[in-house]
Specification:
Largest sheet: 8 strands, antiparallel, barrel
Number of helices: 5
Number of domains: 3
Radius of gyration: 26 Å
Structural class: mainly beta
Strand content: 35-45%
Number of strands: 45
Distance between the termini: 56 Å
Shape: globular
Helix content: under 10%
Length: 649
């Protein structure tokens, strides 16, 4: 059965709770070819990306469902119907593994202008890319490539008629188009999205995939999803800076070459592998009530940005909203794509999808998620304010900045950028995942501003790491496996979630030491749930709070100086107050509006004229209605009496 959900067609699949994963057929794969034709393609274009190229969209010839884009507000979008031609699909054991010969020709096409020149792509075609088996090229009537498309959610969709779809693809500027614009260095820039749907000719042949089966997560079974660096496309997963706007967003205008008060949007492609032995539910929001949790359970993706300055201090300088996952393509395993992520399979999400491309709504506030257990409070959310179980019309991100990661320009420019290391971190929260840290990854990036436009490059995309590192960015500040002397990076595990506290002590000379602590809240949250809506899928949150106090104990007679703290929310909600209170240095949140929420990092520091040893620290969860603060303690490097032993690594 085929059902339209959030602009996405989902193929239903049956899962048998106590079965095992079906083995792939033995022996060499049987190869065949299937032909597709007709259908339509939807092309989305980011008006901010076009403006950065001095490229204007003058029209959409013979298109339908045209949406005019507005910078900072919404993308251009248009659908074009196929008028002739066909395309081969190469199959192995009935599974589509590559595109083959042929070209799909479309009526009409986008029309651009640049420097007084008209660039019309009427009668454009789509064909297989030479770069990767499941990528596309958009060509003119003469076969010249103007765009390419990659990172597809692809698959056979059963129904009448049977269809093959490639959705949520990155749309990139070709090297030829970049040269035409005099911007050769910007070849392969992502400028929008592409969604292709075609009809399968004839009967038999292509299948959605094997009817795989695996148990749902349960005690004694390993549930484990790992973030990976994907080669499922002709373009490896990367990090992007698609637009920059000045306040007030989204209507303050584009960033300029001379100002530094704008906000840069930064996002990425993301890929996963199910390395466990259980099936993972991957249902789109508002898709109904499904096993095993009786709702529309799905993972969420978040991403952060950090700067480690030349002085060694770590600062969080950006955070996204929560991107709700909706479909698993299930590559490299023979299983059908759909709403279950099967063991041994890979999944892929394009930057265009993660940026709400294609006209869909997948971005929402983090505060609607109970992170430890990954439960979405749908009732009363930004998408379902009236709690009727249906997505509210016009809800979701209202522009091209809301719920994205926004980094202030001055945080990316000198003098703060001089000698700094920038870390882009991203991870999926997966219900019942047995390994938090292999679902997190980070990349070293180099943000660059040329004129008014921003770009992001990977620092070292070469072997052996390809600038992809499993684990949180905090590990880059203090290596949890091999901490240097006078440092540590330790986990705090509680019934309400997990955090890590990294500590380091640095000699300033003359017997003075600087003590620094970075607290990273991964999935800790104290929540109050509406008793009238206490069960999924109609869960409603009344309160959602993180950590509200941090304390480091001091030896008798020691005075702390230069007490400071920094976090992402300080500018809008007020800085934490730091002071010495008796034999402790204490920082407290100014209000419940700026507690240390899940997915966020805060840095603390002070100076003391005593060498490091062992210090007792406390981290307290915020008080809740009818419940006091929740205090958690551990020992870390810190000022200690001369007789104290140094902390073990």
């Amino acid at each position: 059965m085929r059902t339209a959900l959030n602009g996405w067609l989902v193929v239903a699949a049956l899962v048998f709770p106590l079965s095992t994963v079906t083995a792939a057929p033995a022996g060499p794969a049987a190869t065949s070819v299937m032909r597709v034709a007709g259908g339509e393609v939807a092309i989305g274009l980011d008006p901010d990306a076009l403006a950065a190229l001095d490229l204007q969209l003058a029209g959409a010839d013979r298109a339908r469902d045209v949406i005019d884009g507005v910078r900072g507000r919404r993308q251009h979008r248009a659908r074009y119907e196929a008028r002739e031609g066909d395309l081969d699909l190469r199959l192995e054991d009935g599974i589509v593994v590559a595109l083959g010969a042929g070209t799909l020709q479309y009526a009409g096409g986008p029309v651009f202008t640049h420097a007084g020149r008209r660039i019309g792509l009427a009668g454009f075609g789509l064909r297989a890319s030479s770069a990767a088996p499941l990528d596309l090229e958009l060509v003119d009537a003469g076969g010249t490539v103007w765009f390419s498309a990659d990172h597809a959610h692809h698959g056979v969709e059963e129904g009448e008629p049977r269809r093959f779809a490639m959705r949520a693809m990155n749309l990139r500027l070709s090297p030829h188009f970049a040269r035409v614009l005099g911007e050769a260095a910007r070849a392969n820039l992502v400028v929008g999205s592409l969604d292709l749907v075609v009809q399968i000719e004839g009967t038999g042949g292509a299948q959605a995939g094997r009817a795989c089966s695996a148990p749902w997560p349960a005690p004694g079974l390993r549930t484990d999803v790992a973030l990976i660096r994907s080669n499922l496309s002709g373009f490896w997963d990367a990090v992007y800076a698609p637009r920059c706007g000045r306040p007030p967003l989204p209507d303050g205008g584009a960033c300029t070459a001379s100002d530094d008060d704008g906000f840069v949007v930064i996002g990425a492609d993301a890929s996963l592998r199910n390395v466990g032995e259980t099936a993972i539910p991957w249902h789109a929001s508002f898709s109904g009530n499904h096993p095993p949790h009786g709702g529309d359970q799905h993972p969420v993706l978040v991403w952060n940005l950090y700067r480690i300055g030349a002085d060694g201090r770590i600062r969080q300088i950006g955070a996204s909203g929560a991107k709700h996952a909706f479909y698993s393509v299930n590559r490299n395993c023979g299983c059908a794509g759909g709403n279950v992520f099967w063991p041994g399979c890979d999944d892929i999400y394009s930057f265009a999808s993660n940026d709400n491309g294609g006209g869909a709504q997948h971005l929402a506030p983090r505060a609607e998620i109970i992170p430890y257990g990954v439960r979405w409070a749908r009732c009363g959310s930004a998408w379902d304010a009236d709690c009727d179980g249906r997505m509210d019309a016009g809800s979701g991100a209202q522009d091209l900045y809301q719920h994205r990661l926004l980094a202030r320009e001055r945080d990316l420019l000198p003098p703060l950028a001089d000698g700094a290391d920038y870390l882009f971190e991203y991870w999926y929260l997966v219900r019942e995942d047995g390994d938090l840290y292999n679902t997190i990854g980070h990349r070293r990036i180099r943000p660059r501003k040329l004129g008014a436009n921003w770009s992001v490059q990977l620092v070292d995309p070469t072997p052996p790491h390809f600038d992809f590192f499993v684990g949180p960015a905090l590990d880059r500040w203090v290596d949890r496996a091999r901490p240097p002397p006078h440092s540590a990076n330790r986990e705090l595990a509680t019934r309400d979630g997990r955090a890590r506290i990294a500590a380091k002590a640095t000699s300033l000379g003359g017997g003075r030491w600087r003590y620094e602590y970075a607290v990273m809240n991964f999935d800790y949250a104290r929540v109050a749930i509406d008793p009238a809506h206490a069960r999924e899928p109609d869960l409603r949150l009344l309160a959602h709070r993180g950590f509200a106090r941090f304390e480091v104990r001091l030896p008798a007679g020691v005075r702390a100086q230069e007490i400071a703290s920094a976090g992402l929310g300080d500018a809008s909600a007020g800085a934490w107050r730091g002071r010495q209170r008796g034999r402790a240095v204490e920082w407290t949140a100014p209000s419940l509006a700026n507690t240390l929420e899940w997915g966020m990092l805060r840095h603390f520091e002070f100076v003391a004229a005593v060498a490091p040893g062992v210090a007792a620290v406390q981290l307290a969860g915020a008080a809740m209605p009818q419940a006091p603060e929740q205090v958690h303690a551990m020992q870390l490097p810190g000022p200690a009496a001369p007789s104290a032993k140094p902390p073990s690594p």
